[in-house]
Amino acid sequence: MTMAKTMEPTRRSSSMKRTRRWQTALHYLILTVVALFFFLPVYYLIVGSFRPSSEVLSGLSGFVPTNLSFDNYAGVFDHLNSDATGYFGQFALVSIIVTTAVVAGSLIVNSMAAYSFARMKWRGKKVLFLLVIILTIIPFEAVALPLYYMFSGQRDTVVIQAIPFIANAFSIFLFYTFFLDVPGEIEEAARLDGAGPFRTFFQVIVPITKPAFATVAILTFLAQWGSYLWPVLMVSDPTARPLPLAISIFQNQQPPEWGQVLAFGTMFIVPVLAVFLIFQRWFVASISSSAIKG
Amino acid sequence: MTTQTQKIPSPAAAPAKRQSSAILTGHRFAGPLFASPALIGLAIFLVAPFVLAVVLSFYRVQLNSPRPARFIGFEQYTRLFTDPDLSAAFGQALLNNFTFALIVVPVQTVLALGLAVLVNRKLRGMVVFRTFIFMPLVFPLALTAVIWRLIYSRGDEGLLNAILGLFSGGALSSHDWLGSPSTALGSIIVMSIWQSVSFQMIIVLAALQSVPTELYEAASLDRANKWQQFINVTVPGIRNTLIFVALITTIFSFRLFDQVYLLSRSGSVDRGSTETVMTQIINTGFDNNNVGQAAAMTVIFMLIITVIAIIQRAAVRQRGGV
What we know:
The structure holds two protein chains of two kinds.
Chain A: H1 2-6, H2 9-48, H3 53-56, H4 71-79, H5 88-119, H6 125-135, H7 141-150, H8 158-162, H9 169-180, H10 184-192, H11 197-208, H12 210-225, H13 229-234, H14 243-250, H15 258-278, H16 280-289
Chain B: H1 2-7, H2 19-26, H3 30-56, E1 59-60, E2 70-71, H4 75-82, H5 84-119, H6 126-134, H7 141-151, H8 159-168, H9 181-209, H10 213-221, H11 226-237, H12 239-255, H13 258-265, H14 277-287, H15 291-318
Helix pairs in contact in B: 3-15, 4-5, 5-9, 5-12, 7-9, 7-13, 9-12, 12-15, 14-15
């Protein structure tokens, strides 16, 4: 580039074009290497899940898609066949129920609180909102152990796996920033039409702030689907295990059946990957909007 | 719904002025009512255990123990730093967290920036490349650890060793990445970056796209080349985002738990060099049922997080925004 500048106009354009093409080629090369770094572990997981266990851990041939079969998938279900081992379907069901409850609950509860803080007038609001903001810095890790101490009587229930994660200070804050942008005239119009606060919120505000709900839903889903620390503390009954805890125990079986472990992992992630591929734009948008606030 | 209500004639033109105050006059309790479910949840599941951690840290206490909890003042804290049985391990865990942060924060921030620049160009097929790079984002850490455990396997059956063996002509092909103290933490760092760098990258990418294009036009009129534009326009333009990313990565570094705990439970990782404050809290309070000791560790952990968060707020406030 710098060299091109000193050249005469006519030769300059053609040499610049050549540099451009080289740059583009280099760009593609780097992109390919980077994409491979991110994709190969995913490929290894999925291909390995269809190969005999003995061939999963076999150096570079672990990459070669030969001897493909569904045996490992059948093996996962054969292996997990009693209350002592838990059942794959049950792990998945626990994960789905807990995640759904947390996502749905947090959408309702946190959006209402945020709406109250952003748009309503009441005594003590400012102090409480400041408190919520301060609470955003406390990560779950900091309270996991005392929380386990408080609720050790509720171990192995599905309810206790979900309920601590419904109210979330950061989600309130995210909703709050979205609700601040809603023009006041909309609420005034609703009020003129005789709508009370509940109807105003659920029938007027919620429909026009869908991106806020999508953002919180996606971020909550990602955190909850992989939740591991809390189940480690609260779940010892195999039939109450969610998927992350279940795979951490399944991978320790002796002798190891790596093909089955990868089949388990594939069933764990492929539904999520599919949703991600369809709604990629939303995933990206929600992550970038989680950061503007700082 | 809206069409239906709009048919109802508005009560009168006169009270329109009082609109904004109608909320509190008509529904005095609506505000607290809306906020209370979330506030109650936060009080029970965040504030109460937080306070409890502080209280428990002054006691010798176990779960389901016949012996009653005994108040021992600051003994848990003093032991944590002076009792050689405890202080060595706790100091090592703190050191591991700091080492992790010291490496991951600069590396991951720079990588996030590099990746964002890399994909922030309109090229054919870019959507596909982006998709590949974003993919690990949806991977739970527990699953990530399982996959990478296989990649790092010792001996020549491990994927990483096989790849290195290929490039080195067989010279490097049997290292035990997770098992040896010198590479265990580094191996965990690489898998953690694999899983989470795209999160930071997306945040940086959004910032890149919000730098006004006029600034680049002005810079190129001033004959600034691509690199000069990057240093003088791009980096200052996204400075605050980079600070933000560096600080959330610092906090993530101290929360490090899932990968390390899972791998240490399966015995496939060197413990001493990878133990973190969080894994120690769980080992002490849960696995060994020494709740009071673990509570003291939790309080120290919380202090560290608070200091980082205060730095973050201060750094963000400096820009004059928010």
